[in-house]
Task: structure prediction
Amino acid sequence: MSEKITNKESILTRQDISKAFFRWWLMSHLAYNYQRMQGGAFASVIGPILKRLYPNKLDEIKEGLKRHMMFFNTEPRWGAVIPGMVVAMEEQRALNPQAISDSAIIDFKSSLMGPMAGIGDTITQALFKPILLSICIGWASAGNILGAILFGAISLGFDFIVTRSTFFAGYKLGTEAVSNLFESGTFKKLNTLLSVLGLFVLGVMICKFVTADIILKFTVNGKAFAIKDLISKILPKAIPLIITISAWQAMIKGVSIAKVLIYLFVISLVGGFLGILG
Result:
């Protein structure tokens, strides 16, 4: 149980990786909230790994936990490849602190969480689960208890097999890929690419999750104009972008997330009451 998973120089054992996998499988939605989504769960997975990598460096452990408490959200089964690869990146960082920066790890997570969520949701939520449900519901509606039992058992088995396979594949791929990238000198280019991709994913998330429009209208020479339509012609989704940047700037200046949410709630309430926002 203590052998290394790859032939590369490593600190972590198979037992360490197995424990990290079980924590992710059982607690991928631990402390799930709209501020960090799965950030708390990710930190709980990485915490024991950091302790193993930095046994006498409390500051490194603290910085690592801060790094992984940031916003993270993906489909937890197929997306398990991400924490697997991040464990490998953290290990390579411990072996060579100059090889991988904090921002490289953060950008890597941000760039992959969206694509992996799309893959996982398509395969699991849109394909596997509906087919399984259609079979098991038929049995259950006929009074056969096996319908409920089989759905639970097969779903659990599917989740376990997929999560374990992707997590370990991510670690193995990550260990080899990160080492090769650093040795070949292409990691800086990849870091830049991931930064751009991370910003792109962030922009998509703003368009998808931040919904607000100015519904105020005015009349000129008997013709009605909607401010929303005028803004959309210049810059679609401009209002969600302004709201997001404003909230981000407020938090940079030290305003707590709780206060930002309260301000947004009050502005939304007043704006809706006055017929300005919708």
Q: What stands out?
A: The mean pLDDT is 83.
